[in-house]
Amino acid sequence: MAGENRKWNTRVDDYLNRKAAERGHVIAMARMGSTALERGDLDDAEAWFRKAAAGGDRVSMSNLAHLLVERGVPEQAERWYREAATAGDSHAMALLGNMCAERGKSDDAEQWWRRAAAEGRVEAMAELGRLLHRRGETREAEGWAFQAAEAGNVEGMITLGALLRDSGRTREAEPWWRRAGEEGDASSLSRLGHQAEQRDDLARAESCYRAAAAAGAPEASVRVGLLLHRRGELDAAERWYLKAAKRGDAAAMTNLGVLANDRNDLGEARAWYRKAAELGSVPAYTNLGRLAADRGDFQEAEHWFRAAADTGDQAGQRDLDELYRNNGARHRQQF
Q1: What is the C-alpha to C-alpha distance for residues 291 and 269, in angstroms, rounded to an integer?
Q2: Distance between CA atoms of residues 7 and 248, nearest Å
Q3: pLDDT digits (tens, 9 = 90+) for 52-93
Q4: Distance between CA atoms of 141 and 100, rounded to whole angstroms?
């Protein structure tokens, strides 16, 4: 009986809310939009949000903008985010800043992020910290990143870690990377690192990879190692490779072999390459082939170069062709 009363009361509330909305009551219109959105009726939700937004409801303006983004109409969405932001909605300010940044309007983005940050929006503080870091304004960047990080924002932690690392304070950065790893998803953090690396933003890439490694992603440990390797920090790179190698990462084993080879420790290099080759590392195949070729072992070199070439690896095929050119076709195996 109680359940039936609740259903009856809900139907009455819905009826009264609809009547109020039809008479132009803005809050009722906003509720109608939210109810339609909950039941998946996007057309009805958009219609009611538009009416409430036109009536000055800034929450509906923001909700309408979210809906328009999802529906693939970013130009209209930006217009409503701007309306909501101008009306004082700090969440809309932050999102409008993001949209401006995506369109390359960094000055507009900064303006809206600053306004949102002043209203206490943590995500805007994090974005502002990133922007200022890229611009080299490290003191202010660190201030905003620290505020965002302290509030639990993963982006803020990543940026703060990068800023501290850039200024030589790696030990101060490490707790923030660990915390970002605890708060964030390892694969997402790795993707952020890859995107930053593609943009040649290596400080941010390293910060993301370190956080991902703290979250348990062995491939992120390899990426940190590679960044350190390229910077010439070989001891640190080796430590990161070893972390990943202990968890069975073939790329880390191959890179440990490269480091050993570079310091002319060919026995250790061969041992790491073999471990990696057992796990199917194609670069390890070619590196084993080159070691064999250097010591004049044609048969072993051919074995490893062919193993690489058979996977479709062009470097392995080139090495195999060069081996035949240098040693004569009479050595070519017959199949």
Answers
A1: 9
A2: 58
A3: 777 777 788 888 888 877 888 788 888 888 888 898 999 999
A4: 19
- Within 13 Å, how many C-alpha atoms sit on residue 277's CB side? 18
- Please give the pLDDT value at position 137: 96
Q: How far apart are CA 144 and CA 130, in angstroms?
A: 9
- Do residues 323 and 305 lie in contact, with contact meaning Cβ atoms separated by under 8 Å? yes
* Two tokens, residue 166: 């850039």
d(CA 59, CA 92): 9
pLDDT averages per 10-residue partition of the chain, 335 residues: 45 63 72 79 79 78 80 84 88 93 93 96 96 95 97 95 92 94 91 92 93 90 96 95 94 97 96 96 95 92 93 90 76 41
Nearest one of 109, 115, 108 to 87, comparing CA atoms: 115
Residue with tokens 């969440």: 91
Q: Which residue has the tokens 């850039």?
A: 166
Radius of gyration of the chain (CA): 29
Collect all residues with Cβ–Cβ distance below 8 Å to 31 and sequence separation of at least 6: 17, 21
Residue 254: half-sphere exposure toward Cβ, Cα within 13 Å: 20
Decide if 151 contacts 123 (C-beta within 8 A): no
Token pair listed for 41 = 């009726």
Token pair belonging to 227 = 């960044």
**Whether the Cβ atoms of residue 207 and residue 158 lie closer than 8 Å to each other:** yes
**pTM for the full model?**
0.73
The neighbour count for residue 131, using CB atoms within 10 Å, is 20
d(CA 237, CA 61) in angstroms, rounded, equals 50
Q: Is the distance from CB of 96 to CB of 88 less than 8 angstroms?
A: no
